[in-house]
Design goal:
about 425 residues, 4-stranded antiparallel sheet
Length: about 425
């Protein structure tokens, strides 16, 4: 899904992608004039890939909505997909989010009614950020505001956001609120991976800062924009979720996890961002799960900036991970590079550049997808990727350079066309 040049009206973002074969993928996101914030006129979009080209999929309008966005999608076949995100009511004066679920039956998408009895976990101020589907069951994760509605409308207080899990089974959604880190810290889940019907791992970050994350549009994809104080992880076996894994909370520089992929109940990789120098800079960050606990991996390297950029670059973050088999993973994200040549105003522009990382065993290798310096891009980033059929992968994101999707059929990246 391509974003236009800066200042050019409509913007589009692909936030999630899944493939059941090399000839069937689905990407979801949002398009509109205010994609970066809670502006009116933004609505959810979806597109399918047939191995050659992308085609727009018709989504039902969200009733009474001034803003809707899909952040994740999971498919078990060409005839069954589920996408999740959030929407904002046109009558809301406080911009409060409400979770959004949509289901595809092979012919059309429909909005799935949320469970009537959600235990008060997702009445307002809620969002589902990631989803994983296996064997007809889908597990989605996000967060919900657990304070009073009057408090939310006045000013969301710190320590009032709780991790949320929603499970779709036999056509019905059920909700479960998970314990927050230390019992009181704001806790946000950003991604989930379920390699089997019996095991899932969910990751995110925690903060004790006043105002917390705020759940801004695309924050799951672009980072918490400050406030994150440590990564968080939960695991479930047979539907029973364990508490927050405190071993993955670090007291040093702040970290956040944005993507996770598991090949079994004893092998997961989670990726994200490490904040440095008082949160003025960042670096890629990853943790691995071995079945008993999480531990930080070696630091993923950055690639050499492509032609047209200065050799120096500003590290940013990894946003997505996909492990097609045990010991073999791919991660993607973005970093900031400065163009070698000035623009028409004589300025050397800093631009976002996508990159991916291969992890074989415990060793990381950075690689640079094709990109173009000086493209006047609003953003150029890998926001989601999947390697769900053999060694081939698909990556999606946003780019003014019109390279919004890439596939990796033979061990190197190439343009896969614009998502429609």
């Amino acid at each position: 899904m391509a974003a236009p040049p800066a200042g050019g009206g409509m913007q589009t973002s692909a936030n999630g992608v899944t493939c059941v074969s090399a000839s069937f993928c689905v990407a979801v996101g949002a398009t509109g004039s205010g994609i970066e914030g809670d502006a009116e006129g933004v609505h959810a979009v979806a597109s399918s890939f047939n191995g050659q080209t992308w085609s727009a999929m018709s989504l039902p309008a969200v009733p009474d909505s001034s803003y809707s966005e899909l952040l994740g999608v999971g498919c078990t076949s060409q005839d069954y997909c589920v996408a999740v995100g959030y929407w904002i009511s046109s009558s809301a004066t406080d911009g409060q989010h409400q979770e959004l679920m949509e289901t595809y039956n092979g012919v059309s998408w429909s909005i799935t009614a949320t469970a009537d009895d959600d235990g008060g976990q997702a009445d307002f101020g809620s969002q589902l950020s990631g989803i994983s589907c296996v064997s007809g069951t889908c597990t989605a994760v996000g967060y919900a505001y657990i304070g009073s509605q009057s408090d939310y409308e006045q000013s969301p207080a710190a320590n009032d956001f709780s991790p949320l899990v929603a499970t779709l089974s036999s056509g019905s959604w059920s909700y479960q609120g998970l314990p927050r880190y230390s019992g009181s810290w704001d806790t946000y889940l950003t991604s989930v991976s379920c390699p089997t019907a019996q095991f899932c791992a969910a990751v995110g970050f925690v903060t004790s800062a006043v105002g917390g994350w705020g759940g801004d549009s695309l924050a799951v994809s672009q980072g918490p924009m400050g406030g994150a104080e440590g990564p968080i992880a939960y695991e479930t076996t047979d539907g029973t979720w364990g508490g927050a894994d405190g071993s993955s909370i670090h007291t040093g520089p702040a970290q956040a996890l944005f993507g996770v992929s598991c090949t079994s109940s004893s092998a997961c990789l989670a990726v994200g961002e490490l904040f440095q120098n008082g949160a003025t800079s960042a670096a890629p960050f990853a943790e691995a799960f071995d079945g008993t606990g999480w531990s930080e991996t070696s630091t993923p390297p950055l690639p050499t900036p492509p032609e047209g950029y200065l050799p120096e670059s500003q590290p940013e973050f990894l946003d997505a991970a996909s492990c097609p088999e045990a010991g073999s993973c791919l991660a993607g994200g973005m970093y900031e590079a400065t163009s070698e040549q000035p623009n028409s105003q004589g300025q050397y522009t800093a631009e976002y550049v996508p990159f991916t990382e291969d992890r074989e065993g415990t060793a990381w290798t950075a690689n640079q997808p094709p990109t173009s310096a000086g493209a006047d891009s609003y953003m150029n980033a890998v926001l989601a990727l999947t390697c769900q059929w053999g060694q081939d992968c698909m990556a999606v994101g946003v780019s003014g350079a019109q390279d919004p999707t890439m596939d990796d059929p033979d061990g190197y990246w190439e343009d896969a066309g614009d998502v429609q």
